[in-house]
Amino acid sequence: MFRIPASRPLGITLDEDQDGFLSSEEREVTTYRLDTTWSRDSRNHYLNPTRGSLHRLGAEIALPGSTREFYRLNYRFRKYWPIGSSGMAFSVKGDVAYGDAYDNYDDDLSIEPIEPERLQGDCQIDEIVTTDSGLPFYEHFYGGGVQDIRGFDDNSLGPKDAFCRSVGGDFKVIGGIELAFPIPGVESTGTRLAWFVDVGNVFQDYDSFETDLLRASTGLALTWQAPVGPIIINLSTPIKQRDGDETQVVQFSFGQVF
Description:
The chain is built from 1 helix and 11 strands, in the order βαββββββββββ. It is mainly beta. A hairpin with a 4-residue loop joins strand 4 (70-83) and strand 5 (88-101). The model is unreliable at 1-12 (pLDDT under 50).
């Protein structure tokens, strides 16, 4: 059953007096944050590696006394294998992120059913969330974009509100494979073309994970180490999508690549 809170509508985490308006005091968010990161990187190139691996584990916590008290964990994995001496490389990737609150905000959530006819868009009811539980809405994870689940619009995947607007979630999982090869006539090691397959999505929480809700895409990605910084251009198409998804055939990114 999909439910909506009677006392705290989705996205009104800060409306403590429940009058439907956010006063200047309610809009002020204070977070005392403690975070740490562990990383092991053996890749042979920061932008276009052909061998090695990356492991990165991060953790952060909003300390007691913050407006909302929560924690977030994330893990990133990359592994690369060269193919002969041609400059080609095969790689796999995985990203997992999870967070939750440890304050008492969720204790007094009052809920009632939501009916399909109340939806104001083309998305599916099994992806509608109407309780603002777990992480505060301004700390949610989002999915989709040029360096995320390619072929889908930036931050458009995952849980939606009743108007089919992406609201993010507490659990995110991404996987993928990539076959990269050098471009004939281009000598720069920072420039290559790659065929990719991405799979993943964002979920309201860990218990909401369902394989049927995963999205997938495939396409070609051009990475160019330009004099002014790395440039990425994706030409992609979804191979698993649902009604209401916002897709992009061409995606462009300029700036830092991690």
